[in-house]
Amino acid sequence: MSITEQIPFNIVLVEPEIPPNTGSIARLCGATNTVLHLVHPLGFSTDDKHMKRAGLDYWRFVNIVHWDNLDMFLQAQEETRLFFFTTKVAVPYFKACLQPGAFFIFGKETKGLPVDILELYSDRCYTLPMQNAHIRSLNLAMTAGIVLYEAIRQNCIAP
Questions:
Q1: Cα-based distances in Å from 85 to 36, 63, 131, 159
Q2: Do 158 and 33 contact (CB within 8 A), yes or no?
C-alpha cells in the first residue's frame, strides 16, 4: 500500500519554540502525508520568516491542525493512539508498535513534555537512545523524522 492510500500518521508539537524546527517538521509532514498538530501557545508567530524558509514552498501541501492547549488536544484523542517522546524514560522508540493513525507527541525544545503528562501516560512514553551521556537530546526535527520513518518502516509503506 502506498503512503498516499494510508490512514495518516500525526506529529504533535506541544508549544514548539524554534521556528526552523517547526518548518522542517512541516516539510517532513508534507512529504509523507502526515498531519501536523500544533499545540498552542507557540513560541513564535506562524508568519515567522525562518519557519517559512525551513518549510520552503511546501506549506500548501501540509495539513496543519491548531489546538488551543494540550488538554484540549488530549481530550479529543483515543489514548491508545498516543505515543509520547521524551529523554526522561529508557524504553526505546522501536519497541512501540506504531500503526497508521497514531499520534507522535513531542514537547517544547527547551523543556520537553510536562512531567504530569509523562507520569499520566508513563506506559506510552518512549525515547531515542543516545550513547554519549554528555548529549542531553537530539534536535526536535531530527527526532520527529526518526520516529515517523520508523512508523513507515514498521508498516512497510512505500511511496
A1: 16, 22, 17, 26
A2: no
Looking at 81-131, list the stretches that DSSP marks H as alpha helix, in order from N- to C-terminal side: 115-120
Mean pLDDT of the chain: 91
CB proximity list for 47: less than 8 A, separation 6 or greater: none
Can you list the domains of the chain with their CATH numbers?
Answer: 3-154 (3.40.1280.10)
Task: List alpha helices for the chain, DSSP H.
Answer: 19-32, 49-55, 70-75, 115-120, 140-154
Predicted TM-score of the model (pTM)? 0.92
Note the pLDDT tens digit of each residue in 15-60.
Answer: 999 988 999 999 999 999 999 999 999 988 877 576 666 556 778 8
Preceding peptide of 92 cis, ω within 30°: no
pLDDT tens-digit readout, 62-95: 999 999 999 999 999 999 999 999 999 999 999 9
Neighbours of 122 (CB within 10 A): 12
Measured CA to CA in angstroms, residue 94 lies from 53, 58, 126, 128 at distances of: 31, 29, 9, 8
Please name which of 159, 152, 11 lies closest in space to residue 81, comparing C-alpha atoms: 11
Amino acid making up residue 3:
I
